[in-house]
Amino acid sequence: MGLFVFVCAAAMVLVGAVGVVTRNNPVHAALSLVLTLFGIAVLFVANNAHFLAAVQVIVYAGAIVVLFLFVIMLLGVDQAEDLSLEPLTVQRPLALVVSIGVTGVIIAAVLKSQDALFARGTGIDSATLQDADANIRQLSRSIFTDYVFAFEVTSVLLLIAVVGTVVMSRRQHGQHVEESV
Amino acid sequence: MFAALFSVFVTAADWVSPSIDYHALAPEIILAGGVVVVLLLDLFTSENNKWMLGPVTSFTLLGSFIPILTLALSDSGTRSLFDGRYVVDNFSLTMKGLFVLAGYLVVLLSSDYLREGDFYEGEYWILMLSSLLGMVMMASSRDLVSIFVSLEFLSIPAYMMAAWRKRDLRSNEAGVKYFLLGVFASALMLYGMSLLYGISNSTLLTDIGKYVSGEMSAVRAVAILFVVVGFAFKISAVPFHTWAPDTYEGAPTPVTAFLSVASKAAGFVALLTVVYVGFPNASEVWQPVFWIFAALTMTVGNVMALRQTNIVRMLAYSSISQGGFILMPLAIAGEGDSAGAALRAVVTYLLVYAATNLGVFAVVIAVSHKTRSGAISSYGGLFSYAPGLAIVMTIFMASLAGIPPLGGWIGKFGSFQALVSAGTTWGYALAVIGAVNTVIAFGYYGNVMREMWMRPVPDGDTTHVVVPSAITVALGLTTFATLLMGILPGLVLHFGDLANLAGAFGG
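ok -> structure tokens follow
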């Protein structure tokens, strides 16, 4: 059963990821992303991380992809770039060869040294999983003890992102931005 | 419902909040406070009073330098927070000092540029402060989560600063290229980090150091490789340098100075911590990688720099090739007991390079103020009408080329000494490549000097160059530092000696 769930979820993740890259229509690409993110949520459930799975569906598959779709709509779906043009003709075959090579190396490395990747750790404490809030409690403990600095500082990063987005997207008074597209 | 709430409080009773050493975090807290203060001031000041934001930024930077000094002078030694995830040791303090002072110099370079170009000011300072906050954090981060957060923290504001000249298509290109390749590098690095976590089941670098050892399984090698390549983008090592020339040319010149000094130094800091604390027992994997990076970076950077006609583009390739020189000692860092020497060499080089390169950009900003041109030929006859600028530029160029008795010489000397003292064939081979490259570098640094001293003024316009006072101060400080480090090498070597990295090589 565990294997079956994993294979299905992994297939969803991979199909979605390939779809994001290959779809020409940006809306379809964004919807493929939902498939990927949902597959990851299933993988979280399979690993007993129910809270993370819920967050994954609500925040990523829900809110963030909706935002993506908003932006795509604002920019206009029909403004497709002509991707058949390329200045250096060797680029794409070369990229294909390199990416296949890298994928091969990673797969070979992982297969060859499975022993190195073993679950040694505690991860989610399965003894207390019966408690309804076990997931949340364990997560919050590690966020507010060991990782508290990185966690708190991320909030400043969000502020910076807001400031930067406003600056980058806003037009100055009386200023005409060159039409670059 | 009340019963459920009550049970929550009961179980929370065994909660112990982590003890926080606020003195150790003071530089970060002051910088974060500065971000908020500048943001609020920017909101509530009129357009005529925006000039005060620059001084506020520089006071914040100087303010955060105070706790760095008091931490360095306190006797308590290495401070370790959050179970070893955030460490304040002499290495991190030295680098924090470098970041904050480099940030201060960039403020001096930026203030007039921003006003004349009619750019957004407040937001610029906010982004610069936060990028510096990320760098200061990077110097102390000792686990994968904080390293990643610091890396994003220092990169995301930098992406936007590169695109600050919004009306200029080349600046847009600079920002987009930097952003796309930076994100790609982050993704590569995250994949490597996830493998590391899978191997060691810990994000703590010291724990990873225990598991990434012994017989090198393929997956460990792949994990190390991906992490190292991720940082190689940040330090623009060849073949991951393609963003650098376009970004450096398109970005506003003070931002280019910031990227080529502070951002590059932050990449090196991250690389040093990850390699020294995380992979001390895997030197057979990363030594050859660094060897290839160093050799390629020096050579490609130099050869491309020879062909440039634009000064900023030439400086971009020069900064790439300087990165290769800084990388050199890492190629032998795992041999015997040469780890300490390599660390000293890298830190010394970074200090010298920061002072010199910021000085070069100060001159470039001052000269382009008059000539309105980026061409190297526009420096023709600079000595005849701006002798001061020509002399300082000559000092900086000679320092970058490594001519004694200037600062750059000490940096190069340290790198070569570390390579040779390791006593391996590969070390000697790299030293030879480095020596050849030092000679090639004279070509383009000498070219600028020849233009300034021997060529005629291109359009006969010999009006005086008006150097804004802030840039004069920056020029004075960087010239002083470059000369001082060259004449009194003991000073900078002292800082290199101080820079022992806590937990490096299991020590």
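Chain B touches chain A through 47 residues (CB under 8 Å).
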